[in-house]
UniProtKB/TrEMBL annotation:
Its EC number(s): 3.2.1.14
Keyword Nucleotide-binding applies: no
Signal sequence residues: 1-34
SUPFAM superfamilies on file: (Trans)glycosidases (SSF51445), Fibronectin type III (SSF49265), Galactose-binding domain-like (SSF49785)
All residue ranges annotated as the GH18 domain in the record: 277-561
InterPro entries: CenC_carb-bd (IPR003305), Chitinase_II/V-like_cat (IPR011583), FN3_dom (IPR003961), FN3_sf (IPR036116), Galactose-bd-like_sf (IPR008979), GH (IPR017853), Glyco_hydro18_cat (IPR001223), Glyco_hydro_18_chit_AS (IPR001579)
Keywords: Carbohydrate metabolism, Glycosidase, Hydrolase, Polysaccharide degradation, Signal
Entry protein name: chitinase
Organism encoding this protein: Streptomyces katsurahamanus
The keyword Flavoprotein is annotated on this UniProt entry: no
Length: 566
């Protein structure tokens, strides 16, 4: 609490001037007067209501609003009680005192009685939102050694607040409040109850403290007046380090010894159900010239959002994820919140493994277990509800099957599992990718083959089809549809724009015609399947970012068309 300080000019100043001017001075012997002080005790209410008496229990010590320090007085009139709060101060006879206080709120009076001369008071009608100062002065009588100073409100009006009372004048023998010193660091910091989003803390009181600051991982997150706090807004299943400091008007103590607490896993919310006909989009965790998106910006047409990509570690099979700073997220918590919001809206958000330049090697039991454990850890940490396999540098179907089954056992039956093989990987059931898809058919959501960056390929009728046509899309999808995959596990993967891939872009109309050909037997090219597949899952694109760059033309057209499939 600030203390009002004044300097008092006295005869010594005149004496110095006279001597400096070469004058002789006589009869000046005597004792110099002490400096004036604030004779009010607990003038800032930092020690509760100590030294003060309030009528009818009308006054309380509050931590807000305060002008300085950590506390102030709040007094509330009621009935015939005007909420008078007073204290008796020691004064010196025949002396002048400046009386002042800062007030806020309702009507507020400030006065002094028992002065031995003329008692004084002043008042304000209040009503403002800030602090205003009341001030007056009084002179004590020849034999007056104590005076009562007081504040009060007015009957039936609202509460008033008071801070920084000053009764400034000669010391009457009672002295003044000692200047505060910085308190010591709090001791006994301990953890209380932890939930999935909060951790409670408590500690021992520090001598002279009027408040405490709470630090989480080195950053101040809360200020309190008591010896306990609950830190909220935390992430589930996450460890945090906490420290506290003690404060008063003199400053802040060193930090306490730290404690580490961990939030609980919390309730597990059910994952979204992938709709019968679904649109999958890859979301870029990097900036390559396409529109940069936060997850919240991903177009609503996408039912499955594949976060591209997880990263490999030096341990074979092990995955990690590094959020790109290029996306503008303030922290991981904001990213996690976006995932949770998408899932709450019924979207699946999954982590994709691989890509054009990414590779994860799973070729042993140890690497399969490392893959499953690390993938599940990412799902738990970020809230992903599945995984996408987009490994483009060769796979071992035996061990990757083991890895995916281990992951499924951990994640449960609602885990979303998608794949994005290249065209060459799905030409026959003897390829490693096709074998993998069939091995995990019972837990597989959809295979979205990449119909781009490819040469001409064989269709299910044994004919060769060139990239970029309805026939290419339908005849190659037919291979999967007729060789073991359920129609609900087959999707058509294409680029969202001409810039999304080196080759293979087709207009949304071509994609929609291919879906109609497979689902309804209409809008086919020269290739027409022997039967229809009304339960075909839908379509996929690389990427939601390139789609946004092209004005969302792909998702606006294909998204609506997929939803309208039978």
């Amino acid at each position: 609490m600030d203390r009002i300080k004044h300097s008092r000019r006295w005869l010594g100043g005149a004496l110095a001037l006279a001597v400096g001017a070469g004058l002789s001075v006589t009869g000046m012997a005597g004792t110099a007067q002490a400096a004036d002080i604030n004779v009010a005790k607990n003038a800032g209410f930092e020690s509760g209501l100590s030294s003060w008496t309030c009528s009818g229990g009308s006054g309380v010590n509050v931590s807000s609003p305060v002008r300085t320090g950590a506390s102030a007085l709040k007094a509330t009139p009621g009935g015939l009680d005007n909420a008078r709060c007073s204290q008796t101060v020691a004064v010196k006879p025949n002396s002048t005192y400046q009386l002042s206080a800062w007030t806020q709120g309702g009507y507020a009076y400030l006065g002094a009685s028992g002065t031995g001369t003329t008692d004084v008071s002043t008042w304000t009608p209040g009503g403002g939102s800030g602090w205003s100062q009341l001030s007056t002065s009084f002179r004590t009588g020849a034999s007056t050694t104590s005076v009562t100073v007081y504040t009060h409100g007015w009957y039936g009006t609202s509460a008033y607040h008071v801070d920084d009372v000053s009764v400034f004048g000669p010391d009457g023998g009672g002295g003044q409040d000692p200047d505060p010193v910085v308190p010591p660091a709090p001791t006994g910091l301990a953890l209380g109850t932890a939930t999935s989003s909060s951790i409670a803390l408590n500690w021992g009181a520090a001598n002279g403290a009027t408040g405490y600051n709470v630090y989480r991982d080195g950053a101040k997150v809360q200020s309190v007046t008591g010896t306990s706090a609950t830190v909220t807004g935390l992430t589930a299943n996450t460890s945090y380090q906490f420290q506290v400091t003690a404060t008063n008007s003199a400053g802040e103590s060193p930090k306490s010894t730290s404690v580490t607490g961990k939030t609980s896993d919390g309730p597990i919310s059910p994952d979204p159900v992938v709709p019968k006909h679904a649109v999958t989009g890859y979301w870029q965790n990097f900036n390559n010239g396409a529109t940069v998106q936060k997850l919240r910006d991903v177009q609503n047409a996408y039912d499955i959002i594949a976060v591209a990509f997880a990263d490999a570690t030096s341990t074979p099979g092990e995955l990690t994820f590094n959020l790109s700073p290029a996306l503008g997220y303030a922290n991981e918590a904001e990213f996690k919140a976006d995932i949770a919001a998408k899932k709450a809206a019924g979207k699946s958000v999954i982590i994709s493994v691989g890509g054009e330049i990414g590779n994860v090697t799973v070729n042993s039991d140890a690497s399969a277990t490392a893959f499953a454990n690390s993938a599940y850890a990412l799902m738990q940490k970020y809230g992903f509800n599945g995984i996408d396999v987009d490994l483009e540098h060769g796979i071992n179907s035996t061990y990757l099957t083991k890895a995916l089954r281990q992951l499924s056992a951990k994640a449960g039956p609602r885990m979303v599992l998608t794949m994005a093989p290249q065209t060459i990987d799905m030409q026959s059931t003897s390829t490693e990718y096709f074998k993998l898809a069939l091995n995990v058919k019972d837990i597989l959501t959809v295979v979205n083959m990449q119909n781009y960056n490819s040469g001409a390929m064989l269709g299910c009728d044994g004919k060769v089809y060139s990239l970029g046509s309805v026939d290419f899309l339908t005849a190659l999808a037919c291979i999967q549809l007729e060789n073991g995959l359920d129609p609900s596990q087959v999707g058509i993967g294409v680029p969202a724009s001409t810039r999304g891939a080196g080759s293979g872009y087709v207009s949304p109309t071509v994609v929609n015609n291919a879906l109609d050909c497979l689902a309804r037997g209409t809008n086919c090219g020269t290739f027409k399947p022997a039967k229809t597949y009304p339960n075909i899952r839908g379509a996929m694109t690389w990427s939601t970012n390139w789609d946004a760059t092209a004005g969302n033309a792909w998702s606006n057209s294909v998204g609506a068309h997929v939803k309208a499939l039978p």
